[in-house]
Amino acid sequence: MSEERATLNVGDDTLDLDLVPGTIGDTGIDINRLRPTTGRITLDFGFANTASCASKITYVNGEEGILRYRGYPIEQIADQSTFLEVAYLLFHGELPTAAELASFTEEITHHTLLNEEMKKFFDAFPKSAHPMAILSSATSAMATFYPAFHNPVDPYAVSQSMIRLIAKLPTVAAFAFKKSIGQPYVYPRNEMDYATNFLNMMFSVPTEDFEVDPVIARALDVLLILHADHEQNCSTSTVRLVGSSRANLFASVSAGISALWGPLHGGANQRVLEMLAQIHEDGHDYEKAIARAKDKDDPFRLWGFGHRVYKNYDPRARILRGFTHEVLERMGADDPLLDIAMKLEDVAMNDEYFVERNLYPNVDFYSGITFRALGFPVRMFTVLFAIGRLPGWIAQWKEMVEDPNTRIGRPRQVYRGEVLRDYVPAEQR
Ligand code: CMC
Predict the structure, then answer these.
(1) Could you confirm whether 229 is annotated as catalytic?
(2) pLDDT computed for residue 2 by the predictor
């Protein structure tokens, strides 16, 4: 609590409000007593001014373009850490010792197999099924295999569910992909690291030897790190909200995957690639895309641009911009869509509409080109985002469950409908 206070005058009522300062960043005005004292509530569309919790996991400063996991700058983490180490850090708050990391990695590695019965589940989907639909359903279905681990306040059950989710989501994703292209499922290999194993399940076939390029595996690991958490975004808030009803971790994460699928959130990475391909097809007509993005009657947006919190360059996009170049160069590849992306960024950043609104490239703008360079099809992009975001969802869910201030998430509304009417039978309407 801060010594500073806020005062709110509503009609004849005056309410003295506590301030809850962050260790860094925003200070919250605690309005817990607002309705009981004044009979009034707040109205905040899209929760743009509302903190739903106090958290110690991730710090974002949107004005300065800063992102830190548990206090560590994303630039250092992306450069020096690994995805599983980041998952440990997000869950436990501290970097693991070598022994702790080894045991955490071993536990995850030993849970990568899916129950064989799950294979029938994949068969039930049409070949054309979007992998995000499969990922969300399979995550929910996983709960049916582990009913003994549903209790959200049993630390052992939670830690087992956490391990299983991190271990199995890549297997689910790779099976969904294999199903979509009519190839046999490739089982996980426990001697491989997390990213290598995933790439092997995605791209190897039983008929020939396949070796995962370590450069590609490291690039994928970095991409997953960059997506690992982003405080109270739409999907994370969904995971917390669902979990606040004491729903199990599988159910909560499944809801988060559905939220991520939307094109304003993680689904934007697929839209970015489609947009760049369209610009390519249109003979590099940047102005057409820019004009459509500005047209309020057109649902099209400049995908991969803008952010609720960042009013500056998204630090993840900044890392990815250089990283994408590096990955393409090291693979000896060239992608005309990268040139198109850079030119589009240049055009947008010099356009008054984007400048006035502080619309900068976000993480989704360059991630897709890198995913593509690594060999992933466009429809898998949001799935990759989900695999990356999973540790963040779990860490936030766990923090929510352990927080004594948590109550079931249940917003209020300002009712603006009809006040009271008498029912009119159909023949009299
Ligand atoms: N293209 C064109 N106009 C835009 C864009 C865009 N990409 N983003 C925002 N605007 C405009 C918007 O129309 C509004 O204009 P006006 O003031 O004239 O009404 C203004 O900028 C403010 O935008 P907003 O929609 O009110 O901002 P928001 O905070 O509610 O939405 C956003 C944030 C990310 C949903 C939005 O910027 C957007 O739709 N971007 C494109 C989709 C995208 O790239 N999403 C990925 C977000 S980052 C990673 C993730 O979360 O998954």
Answers:
(1) no
(2) 67
Residue 11 has pLDDT above 90, yes or no: no
Ligand 1 mutation pick, 44, 307, 318, max ligand atoms within 8 A of CB: 307
CB atoms within 10 A of CB 46: 8
- Between the alpha carbon of residue 393 and those of residues 130, 168, 174, 266, 400, the distances in Å are 22, 15, 20, 14, 10
- By the 10 Å C-beta count (0-12 exposed, 13-18 middle, 19+ buried), 411 is classed as exposed
Ligand 1 centroid from CA 356, angstroms: 13
Measured CA to CA, the distance from residue 296 to residue 339 in angstroms comes to 27
Task: Please report the DSSP string for 135-163 in residue order.
Answer: HHHHHHHHHHH-GGG--TT-HHHHHHHHH
Does ligand 1 come within 6 angstroms of the Cβ of 271?
no
Sign of CA dihedral 275, 276, 280, 285: positive
Which residue of 264, 302, 314, 358 sits with most ligand 1 atoms within 8 Å of its CB, as the best mutation to test the pocket? 264
**For the whole model, what pTM was predicted?**
0.96
Pocket lining: 265 vs ligand 1, CB cutoff 6 Å:
yes
92 lines ligand 1 (CB under 6 A): no
Going by CA atoms, what residue is nearest to atom 39 of ligand 1? 264
Measured distance CA(188)–CA(204) in Å, rounded: 11
Q: In this structure, what token pair is assigned to residue 320?
A: 């990815």
Rounded CA gap, 38 and 95, in Å? Answer: 45
Concerning whether 364 is annotated as a catalytic residue, the answer is yes
Res. 1: pLDDT tops 80:
no
Cα torsion angle, 161, 198, 236, 73, sign: positive
Residue whose tokens read 């850090």: 89
DSSP 117: T
pLDDT digits (tens, 9 = 90+) for 251-301: 999 999 999 999 999 999 999 999 999 999 999 999 999 999 999 999 999
Determine if ligand 1 sits within 6 Å of the CB of residue 173.
Answer: no
φ/ψ region of 306 (left if φ > 0, alpha if ψ in -120 to 50, else beta) reads left
